[in-house]
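[Meeting: bench + compute handoff]

Bench side (C.D.) handed over the final construct sequence. Compute side (W.E.) agreed to return the predicted structure before the next meeting so the bench team could plan truncations. Sequence as handed over:
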Amino acid sequence: MTAPAVRRVRTAEWREIRDLRLEAVGDPAASIAFLSTVEQERAHDDDFWRRRAAGASLSDSAAQFIAEDGSRWVGTVTVLLREQGAPDHLGRTVSRARADIVGVYVSPRQRGTGLLGRLIAAAADWAADRGVPELSLDVHRDNERAQAAYRKLGFVPTGETFASTIGPELVMVRPGRVGA
């Protein structure tokens, strides 16, 4: 069995990006993993998805990586670079430049295979190449499965907590690529 290939999305793949996002937010654990719902995502028009694909594939401040098992997309992670002093996606002021991991999803049949680590590694390498070696993410306080997966990948809680639209969350960080 060949492991799924991990790569950055391409601009023309907006339909696949949309479909994977709908699958991700439709996951039973999504209510404590995503800041949106299937209904909210379905409400976006095709132009929204085209713009999202362009940004995720071409931007120097954001990148989306996917895992591809043959023709089926089975995982994704997005990394957003944040400048010091700028607001993040939740309006919090960024205290120092960082790379935020968001939109993490691995299909149920691929969980526990190491695929999440490969997706995070791709995001970490991309961020480190842009001078931001540390990764940061927010995870719901009650999403123990996700917290355990992130801990296995070297993320540790910072002690920072906050309330978002999905409830209480905590911040986790990990160093990026060694030598970055």
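W.E. noted at the follow-up: The helical segments are 14-25, 38-42, 46-58, 115-129, 144-152. C.D. will use this when planning the next construct.
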